[in-house]
């Protein structure tokens, strides 16, 4: 006879949980691209700098996740586990917290928000989610020994073509004095940073909640005091003290609670059920949806190279999904 209620996620099948996590991740990632560009675009007279937005992101997430992490650590220690935490806040060991936190919590945010200050959302739509499967496949092959099939290789080639159509065109115009190419490089570097986190999460078989708490812990303990000190000394430009409170609260809520807490957990859930490579393939809708949003909501022009790059990247991601072996076990029950 049952002795108590079943855990929430265990009430549903692994497939249901995985697909729900994928849907939420796609929605938040699409909104993230549009809102981040609207917040950092110099033409819109932003009230916050890219590093200010990263600050709000980390603060918003830390308000929820650090107390949660401290509670998990106390519970683990009450159960006799004393070596699987860091500083009484992160529920993961120090070496895992530092590595995943550097790539998934600190480096990703600073790179991507800086990119939105230089390049439009249409470029991010192609280069950010578009290059993610490429970096993830290469890192999974290198670190995890996952085989890249010839069919998947063809899909990755399409992604490279799409990235080249977008990023290559901006690089050719670099000598004209524009800075779009800098944003494109920052987007690709950000995608590589997040791919590194996703592969590390799979390698260590990390729990979704604990991994998200760990990367936020590292970012909060390093970025927040460091950026506060640099801003107070005037070494970096900051508008935190001049920005309206509603802007600070909005960025903390969406960037911190939505993009980190909710999206971080759902993305890591996808990794647990589908694996790092296939998880990034599931995000095939993000480039198209965010590109449409950039045209309709932000008024960005859809140039021919962007259109063909978007088609190539989306086609490459979809090709990777279709190339998956049908009978391969892609869903794993959470341990």
Using the CA coordinates, give the radius of gyration: 20 Å
- Report the uncertain regions: 1-6, 325-335
The overall strand count is 0
Task: Describe the main β-sheet briefly.
Answer: none
Helix content: over 70%
Seen as an oligomer or otherwise, the chain set is single chain
Put simply, the count of helices is 11
Number of individual domains: 1
Q: Which term fits the overall shape? A: globular
Question: Describe it for me?
Answer:
- There is one protein chain.
- This protein has 335 residues and is mainly α.
- It has one domain.
- Helix content is 73%, strand content 0%.
Structure described in brief:
By secondary structure, this protein is mainly α. The chain has one domain.
Features:
single chain; 335 residues; mainly alpha; globular; disordered N terminus; disordered C terminus
List the helices and strands and how they pair.
Layout: H1 14-40, H2 50-78, H3 94-116, H4 121-144, H5 150-172, H6 180-203, H7 208-232, H8 245-274, H9 276-282, H10 285-296, H11 304-322
Helix pairs in contact: 1-8, 1-10, 2-3, 2-7, 2-8, 3-6, 3-7, 4-5, 4-6, 4-9, 4-10, 4-11, 5-6, 5-11, 7-8, 8-9, 9-11, 10-11
């Amino acid at each position: 006879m049952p002795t108590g209620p079943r855990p929430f996620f265990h009430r549903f099948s692994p497939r249901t949980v995985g697909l729900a996590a994928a849907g939420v991740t796609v929605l938040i990632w699409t909104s993230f691209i549009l809102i981040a560009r609207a917040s950092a675009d110099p033409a819109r007279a932003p009230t916050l700098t890219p590093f200010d937005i990263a600050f709000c992101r980390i603060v918003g997430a830390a308000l929820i996740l650090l107390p949660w992490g401290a509670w998990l650590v106390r519970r683990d220690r009450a159960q006799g586990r004393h070596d699987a935490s860091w500083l009484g806040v992160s529920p993961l060991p120090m070496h895992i917290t530092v590595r995943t936190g550097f790539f998934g919590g600190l480096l990703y945010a600073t790179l991507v928000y800086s990119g939105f200050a230089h390049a439009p959302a249409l470029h991010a739509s192609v280069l950010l989610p578009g290059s993610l499967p490429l970096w993830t496949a290469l890192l999974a092959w290198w670190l995890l020994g996952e085989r890249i099939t010839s069919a998947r290789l063809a899909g990755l080639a399409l992604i490279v073509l799409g990235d080249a159509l977008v990023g290559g065109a901006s690089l050719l115009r670099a000598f004209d004095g524009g800075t779009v190419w800098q944003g494109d490089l920052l987007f690709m570097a950000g995608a590589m940073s997040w791919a590194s986190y996703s592969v590390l999460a799979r390698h260590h078989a990390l729990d979704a909640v604990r991994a998200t708490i760990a990367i936020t812990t590292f970012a909060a303990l390093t970025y927040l005091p460091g950026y506060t000190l640099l801003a107070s000394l005037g070494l970096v430009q900051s508008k935190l003290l001049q920005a309206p409170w509603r802007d600070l609260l909005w960025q903390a809520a969406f960037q911190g609670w939505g993009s980190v807490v909710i999206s971080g957990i759902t993305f890591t859930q996808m990794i647990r059920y589908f694996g790092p490579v296939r998880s990034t393939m599931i995000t095939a809708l993000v480039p198209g949806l965010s590109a449409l949003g950039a045209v309709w909501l932000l008024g960005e022009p859809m140039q021919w190279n962007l259109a063909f790059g978007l088609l190539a990247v989306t086609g490459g991601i979809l090709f990777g999904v279709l190339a998956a072996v049908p009978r391969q076990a892609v869903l794993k029950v959470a341990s």
